[in-house]
Amino acid sequence: MYRGNSIQLAPCGHQVNPSNVNSMVNTCLGKKSLEFSCPDCGGVWKWRQVQELMQLSAQQMAPQQEKVDCIVEGHPDIYKKCPSCSCVLKRPLDSTNQPFQFVQCSQCSPPQHFCWSCLAPWLFSNKASAGHCSNKSCGLVAMLLNCDMVINKKSDVFGCPLFRACPKCHAPIMHARGCNSKSSLKQP
């Protein structure tokens, strides 16, 4: 059962009951949503904050975390995990509903900025600058992180990403074929 069932103070300042928070989480996860919010004021709660409010044991939390991980993996255009602390990040939108090219993790101390595409550190040259990704191979890494998986169950590489990078020339190749580059060894 619950580690406790005492009234909790939510991040927004309202008092919540853990069983009500659990019900809200189950409803959200059932809808494949990670939009957790206070029922009183609508204040947005992060997954880590919700976990504390639920007051579940690690064993009870495991199935919930699996559902969250599946939602993150299934919606890489909306959610990713911080490469430093593994908390769930939601891609921010600007005032015109266009996605930013970077995301800030406020759970890291100090807060970190990452490229949305490849999760490399995001660099700001000055305060007025929009900045840029620190990874010169951002496009390749982004493609490899976001490509489909091999779904043929008879394949030796079932469940692996459809593409990989050639270890010699870094060109993207499919698991079924090797690299055609002359500077590379043929890979199966």
UniProtKB/TrEMBL annotation:
Domain of life: Eukaryota
Protein name: RING-type domain-containing protein
